[in-house]
Design brief:
Layout lengths: L11 H14 L12 H8 L3 H13 L3 E4 L3 E4 L5 H13 L5 E2 L12 H12 L15 H15 L8 E4 L2 H11 L5 E4 L5 H9 L3 E2 L6 E4 L13 H14 L2 E5 L15 H4 L5 E6 L11 E4 L2 H10 L9 H12 L2 H28 L3 E4 L6 E6 L5 H10 L2 E2 L1 E4 L5 E6 L8 H11 L1
Parallel strand pairs: 3-13, 5-6, 5-7, 7-8, 8-9
Antiparallel strand pairs: 1-2, 4-10, 9-10, 11-12, 12-15, 14-15
Helix pairs in contact: 1-3, 2-3, 5-12, 6-12, 7-8, 7-11, 13-15
Length: 433
C-alpha cells in the first residue's frame, strides 16, 4: 500500500527526508539502528529509488544518518543539536524516584526466590498439561486451593465453581463488565484507582457518586488516609445496597496488612455471598510481577458468566497457576503472610522511630489501619500538592493529604524502600519540608 505523505509544496524526496527525520527526532529510530536499504524503502513506500537516494543523501548531509560501506544506512549516534535538545528536555522532565513511599512494591527480603523457582520448575515438568491452553475460568485445582484459602482467612462464602482467575484485577473487571452489562453507573470509594475506572469507562460506564448501580469499594482502605471500614459500616453498606438494588464489588486488596486493629470480616462473608463480587490478588503477598488475581461471583451471576466464559481466554500463566496451587497447598502462602507481617511491622516501627527522632515535636504519628504504612502529620506544613512537587524534584514519592487544620499528612508505605535506606529517605523528606 502506497504511503500517503502529508500534502505540501515540497519535492517528494524532501517529504521522505522529513518522514525519516521525524522518526529519528522522536526516538522511533534510535542511534545505531539500521534503516531500510534504498531498494527496500523504494518498494515499501512505492516511490522511485532515485527519490529515496536523494532523501538519504540529504539526511546524511545533515548528520541524521551515516552510510557504512557494504552494510547500509544507520541512524547517527552524533545527533544534530536540535535532537540533543529534545533528548535533554525529555530527560529533564522525567523524574527519577530514589525513595518510593507511595509504591505497593515489594521488599527483596520479603520473598524466597529459591523456593518459588522450585515450584515453577516442578510445574514445568508437567509436559502434557502444558501442551494445552489454560481453562478460561482458571485451573480447577488452583480454584480449589483459593476457595479453601479465602474461606479460612476471610470467611468468603464460595466454591471453586464461583471463582474466576486472571492476570490482575483489571483483566477480571473486563469480564465482569460483560456479566453486568445491564448496569451503567459505578461509584468508587477511591477515585484514584485509575486502572479500575479506566475499565468501566472503556465499557461505556459513568463514574458517579449519584445513584450508582454498582459500588466499588476497598474496605481495607476506604479513604485517601488508609482508614479501614468498621463492621458497623460494612453492615450499613450491605443493607443500603440491597435496598437500592445496587451491586457491591469488594476489592480486598491489602486486607492481610490491616492487622494493627482486629481483623474485620469481608463484606462478602457478612452478606452470605449474595450481591457482592469479591476480588483479591496474590501480587501483594508474593511479587508484583506475579500477576495472579481472582474474583468470586455470586451464585446468581454464574449462569450469565458461563454463557460468555468461552469468549475470554485465560490471561494468567498456566505454569504459574500450577506452581501457585501447590505453593498454597503446601502451606507456604500462610508462612509467607506471617513473614510479611513480621517484616513490615518491624519496618513500620523503625520508620516511625526515625521520623520522631528527625522531626521531634513538629510531627505527630497518627493511627493507621494499614500495617505497611506510617501516617505522619506535620505542624504548620500546608499545600500538600506543592510539597509533593518539591519531593519529586529530590527523587521522593509519597501520598499526601490534609487534616482538619489544613496541615499536610504524609502517608508513607515502607514496602519499597530498603530498611538501610529509611533514615536517608527521612532526612531527605526533612529537606523538602
Amino acid at each position: 500500500m502506497k504511503y500517503q505523505f502529508p500534502d505540501d509544496d515540497k519535492p517528494l524526496y524532501m517529504r521522505v527526508y522529513g518522514y525519516y527525520k521525524n522518526m529519528i527526532m522522536n526516538g522511533t529510530l534510535a542511534p545505531g539502528q539500521k534503516i531500510p536499504s534504498i531498494r527496500r524503502c523504494s518498494e515499501e513506500l512505492e516511490i522511485s529509488r532515485t527519490t529515496v537516494e536523494n532523501a538519504y543523501m540529504s539526511l546524511a548531509a545533515d548528520g541524521y544518518i551515516i552510510s557504512r560501506k557494504n552494510s547500509g544506512f544507520y541512524v547517527s549516534s552524533i545527533c544534530p543539536d536540535d535532537r540533543n535538545k529534545n533528548v535533554k528536555a525529555s530527560r529533564k522532565n522525567t523524574q527519577q524516584i530514589i525513595y518510593n513511599f507511595s509504591s505497593a512494591g515489594a521488599d527483596k527480603e520479603s520473598f524466597n526466590f529459591d523456593l518459588w523457582r522450585r515450584y515453577i520448575k516442578s510445574a514445568l515438568r508437567q509436559d502434557e498439561r502444558l501442551l494445552s491452553y489454560g481453562e478460561p475460568q482458571g485451573e480447577y485445582e488452583l480454584r480449589e486451593a483459593i476457595a479453601s484459602f479465602i474461606s479460612s482467612r476471610r470467611n468468603v462464602v464460595c466454591s471453586p465453581q464461583n471463582i474466576v482467575v486472571g492476570a490482575g484485577v483489571q483483566s477480571l473487571l473486563h469480564i465482569l463488565c460483560s456479566v453486568i452489562s445491564e448496569k451503567k453507573k459505578v461509584s468508587f470509594s477511591d477515585p484514584g484507582f485509575r486502572q479500575g475506572t479506566a475499565v468501566f469507562r472503556d465499557h461505556g460506564w459513568t463514574i458517579t457518586d449519584e445513584d450508582p448501580d454498582v459500588i466499588y469499594v476497598n474496605p481495607s482502605s476506604v479513604s485517601e488516609s488508609g482508614d479501614v471500614m468498621t463492621v458497623e459500616e460494612r453492615f450499613s453498606l450491605i443493607k443500603s445496597a440491597l435496598d437500592a438494588g445496587r451491586l457491591i464489588i469488594e476489592d480486598d486488596y491489602g486486607s492481610e496488612f490491616s492487622y494493627f486493629s482486629r481483623r474485620t470480616p469481608s463484606l462478602q462473608s457478612l452478606a452470605s455471598g449474595k450481591n457482592v463480587v469479591y476480588t483479591g490478588t496474590f501480587s501483594r503477598l508474593l511479587l508484583p510481577s506475579i500477576r495472579m488475581s481472582y474474583m468470586v461471583l455470586p451464585d446468581e451471576m454464574m449462569e450469565k458468566y458461563l454463557n460468555i466464559a468461552g469468549d475470554y481466554n485465560q490471561t494468567a500463566s498456566k505454569t504459574e497457576q500450577i506452581a501457585l496451587c501447590q505453593f498454597i497447598r503446601d502451606g507456604h502462602m500462610a508462612s509467607q503472610i506471617r513473614k510479611l507481617k513480621k517484616l513490615y511491622a518491624a519496618k513500620s516501627s523503625m520508620l516511625t522511630d526515625i521520623i520522631k527522632d528527625v522531626f521531634g515535636n513538629s510531627v505527630k504519628i497518627l493511627p493507621c489501619g494499614s500495617g505497611v504504612m506510617v501516617k505522619a502529620s506535620f505542624t504548620g506544613v500546608r499545600e500538600p500538592d506543592k510539597l509533593k512537587e518539591r519531593a519529586l524534584a529530590k527523587g521522593i514519592s509519597f501520598r499526601c493529604t490534609v487534616n482538619k487544620n489544613g496541615e499536610a499528612v504524609l502517608l508513607l508505605s515502607c514496602t519499597s524502600v530498603k530498611t538501610e535506606e529509611l533514615e536517608k529517605a527521612v532526612l531527605l523528606i526533612k529537606e523538602v519540608i
